[in-house]
Amino acid sequence: MIIRIESLDIKGVEVFASLTEAQLRNRLDPSQAIFIAESPKVIGVALDAGYQPLSLLCEERHITGDASGIIARCGDIPVYTGSRELLARLTGYTLTRGVLCAMRRPVEKTTEEICEGARRIVVIDGVVDTTNIGAIFRSAAALGIDGVLLTTTSCDPLNRRAVRVSMGSVFLVPWGWLPADGYRRLQQLGFKVAAMALTDDSVSIDDERLMAEPRLAITMGTEGDGLSAGVIAEADYVVRIPMSHCVDSLNVAAASALAFWQLRSR
After folding, report:
1. Are strands 53-59 and 99-104 parallel, antiparallel or unpaired?
2. CA 115, CA 18: separation in Å to the nearest integer?
């Protein structure tokens, strides 16, 4: 159902404009929570993974172009359209490939559900940059990580920019939020916690004991200060990536990709 908009106050388009990320998540009624996916490729990955589309916002020129396949797949949902300039005023940014899709958020998975049958998971602890979150998910999907758990101090993986940077990989790897006693719970489920940090007693990432572990939770810390002293103290291993030229660390997204490859399940 194509709906042409001529102004910014049309009912139905508020999900693409005036609602904040927190309002979209709708903590008071999770069954009504929404997220925004951007670009035909990313929306296609979400549809392939079974996510439910609610409405589309699309530049006129893309209705019969890049977005035509997505529109056909979404069935009878509203497709709001208008000029490129109007849609940019509505959203506050220029649409990537000219299309956005409002989708229903999935039911959140528990730690136990994420860990069931998993051998390698990543814990994202306090990472707030959307680009880093998206890049970590993309590496996790590509390099064989079975699941992702995030502390509540981390950025929401279904943030629009995180979804776009991940190229839809957030839809491919099961993920959930780590509870307050999450590290202890992981250990009770048979995981060894490998904290990626620089300490006097850290082991190299190529240590044979790490690769021999049947279940490993690779833990990545915040962009600035890294993992807290408490998390490091509770970890079964503290792991470092050897560096050259007096460089002390890598960006968290780069470090995660290297760790996932080195510590992948064999």
Report:
1. antiparallel
2. 37
d(CA 160, CA 151): 19
Of 247, 125, 145, give the one whose Cα is nearest residue 198. Answer: 247
Q: Which of 40, 58, 53 is nearest to 2 (CA)?
A: 58
**Which pLDDT tens digits describe the chain residue by residue (266 residues)?**
888 888 767 788 888 886 777 777 776 577 789 999 999 999 999 999 999 999 999 888 888 888 899 999 999 999 998 888 888 888 877 776 788 999 999 998 999 999 999 999 999 999 999 999 999 999 999 999 999 999 999 999 999 999 999 999 999 999 999 999 999 999 999 999 999 998 888 999 999 999 999 999 999 998 778 899 999 999 999 999 887 887 777 889 999 999 999 998 77
Q: How many CA atoms lie within 13 A of 106 on its CB side?
A: 17
Alpha-carbon span 159 to 69, nearest angstrom: 24
State the residue for tokens 């927190």. 22
Residue 54 CB contacts under 8 Å (≥ 6 apart), including other chains: 15, 34, 77, 101, 102, 103, 104
Strands (E), the chain: 2-4, 34-38, 53-59, 79-82, 99-104, 120-124, 147-150, 175-177, 192-196, 203-204, 216-220, 237-240
The candidate with the shortest Cα–Cα distance to 93, out of 161, 41, 32, is 161
Q: At what angle do helices 252-262 and 130-142 cross, to 10 degrees?
A: 10
Structure tokens at 238: 């503290």
